[in-house]
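Is this the right way to post structure tokens for a design question? Let me know if I should format differently. Anyway, here goes:
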């Protein structure tokens, strides 16, 4: 068909209804406790290193530091088993194992450190990724393009009705006829992902990016897919490589912040969340994670400020509203 190569060059616009890409879940469990010396006096400056011991290819380590009251608190932990190690110069290292439940605050009884040995510190981690609204599919006004447009409409109808096999066949035929139609590759990737074909989904998301590099949703969806497949480094690379292109895209910046957060890249996460908060004020979750990052470095004032703002603008149904309210109550008591 001669019209194949000219499908994207024409000006007629057909709006594509893309299915929402899967939003990677933000890690929202919280660990809180205190560290004291042999006499029960609070120890400030203790490095609290938390290592996730559940399943996963990547090593996940987060840290916190005790304040003048010997208290530490860490937000953004995965539910599951953790090994906690406590270190401070002049004291023998201590530690314990704990199991965190999703979205809850785990209170740890005071841990005693014995004077003598020195200790060391390292680490840090974070949340997930969120897609943006789909761009339009551009098709020509010629007869071949009209046929592709009609097929695209049928494919969307099948997708909406849950007829995944039919939708997949239709989208395959569409990308064969119009190989440069980004939204069709995106939807085909979504269907592959839905049935567990990670390799197929990755290939189609990468094809969508190749033919339509200005559509941020494809990058976010691909990063979400890779992170879910425990390929966090690959997920972060997809986003960091495209970060300059989407410097003014709030949804993309949130996805970048979330992915960096979950990998322990706290500086990158904070920078991206700060941009997302400015560019996409409707997404209040950036404020929650900015507050948790401030808290991880014992900047209580900044943490309270950001968490209070989060609570003031987040809807009642916001996923971290309860955790933020509980944290604020605790932080205000310790001030």
């Amino acid at each position: 068909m001669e019209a194949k190569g000219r499908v994207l060059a024409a000006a007629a616009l057909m709006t594509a209804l893309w299915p929402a890409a899967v939003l990677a879940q933000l890690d929202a469990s919280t660990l809180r406790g205190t560290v004291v010396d042999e006499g029960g006096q609070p120890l400030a400056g203790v490095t609290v290193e938390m290592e996730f011991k559940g399943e996963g290819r990547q090593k996940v380590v987060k840290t916190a530091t005790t304040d003048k009251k010997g208290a530490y608190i860490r937000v953004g932990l995965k539910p599951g088993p953790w090994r906690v190690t406590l270190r401070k110069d002049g004291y023998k290292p201590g530690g314990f194992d704990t199991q965190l439940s999703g979205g809850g605050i785990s209170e740890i009884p005071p841990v005693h450190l014995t004077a003598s040995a020195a200790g060391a510190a390292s680490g840090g981690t974070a949340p997930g990724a969120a897609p943006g609204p789909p761009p339009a599919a551009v098709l020509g006004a010629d007869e071949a393009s009209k046929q592709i447009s009609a097929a695209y409409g049928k494919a969307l109808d099948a997708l909406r009705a849950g007829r995944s096999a039919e939708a997949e066949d239709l989208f395959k035929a569409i990308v064969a006829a119009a190989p440069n139609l980004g939204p069709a590759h995106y939807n085909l990737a979504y269907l592959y992902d839905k049935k567990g074909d990670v390799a197929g989904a990755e290939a189609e998301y990468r094809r969508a990016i190749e033919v339509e590099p200005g559509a941020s949703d494809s990058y976010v969806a691909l990063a979400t897919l890779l992170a879910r497949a425990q390929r966090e480094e690959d997920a972060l690379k997809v986003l960091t490589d495209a970060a300059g292109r989407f410097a003014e895209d709030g949804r993309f910046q949130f996805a970048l912040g979330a992915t960096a957060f979950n990998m322990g890249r706290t500086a990158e996460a904070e920078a991206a969340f700060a941009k997302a908060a400015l560019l996409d004020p409707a997404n209040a979750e950036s404020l929650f994670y900015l507050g948790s990052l401030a808290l991880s470095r014992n900047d209580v004032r900044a943490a309270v400020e950001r968490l209070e703002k989060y609570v003031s603008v987040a809807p009642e149904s916001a996923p971290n509203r309860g955790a933020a309210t509980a944290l604020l109550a605790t932080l205000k008591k310790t001030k």
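Format looks fine. Someone answered above. Worth noting: Confidence is low (pLDDT under 50) at residues 1-25, 117-141. DSSP finds eleven helices and ten strands in the chain.
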